[in-house]
Design a protein that fits this description.
By secondary structure, the chain is of the alpha+beta class. Helices cover about 65% and strands about 10% of the residues. It is built from five helices and three strands; from the N terminus they run ααβααββα. It is elongated, with a radius of gyration of 20 Å.
Length: about 110
């Protein structure tokens, strides 16, 4: 089965700050822009923008928590991203095996 790769999802995950935010949200079971900014070397406003990106691609869910919004990771979307990554890895493994076989065949031909 081939999994379609979602470029927007991987663009969001591609940013190291957003990956760190996902790690923190997973470890803590959720958080707010304020709690995340306390643990990251970026401003609360920057954290809020990053959370907006993660929300747009469905990697986090947002619920009101007093004056702030609370974010938690969407397990299904994260699993979807992991499946896409596994599919891409498998595809590249197959390509590299083919390249190796071709290189070995060329080498054998040269040795004759």
């Amino acid at each position: 089965m081939t999994v379609a790769v979602d470029d927007d999802l991987w663009s969001a995950i591609g940013d190291p700050t957003r990956r760190r935010m996902l790690d923190l949200l997973l470890a803590d079971g959720g958080g707010t822009a304020t709690t995340l900014s306390d643990r990251l070397p970026v401003t609360r406003q920057a954290v809020a923008k990053h959370l907006g990106v993660l929300d747009r691609v469905g990697l986090v869910h947002v619920t009101p928590a007093g004056r702030e919004m609370r974010y938690r990771v969407d397990d299904a979307q994260l699993a979807r991203a992991a499946a896409q990554l596994a599919e891409v890895g498998s595809t590249w493994d197959a390509r590299l095996r083919r390249i190796k076989r071709i290189a070995e065949a060329v080498q054998r031909t040269r040795e004759r």
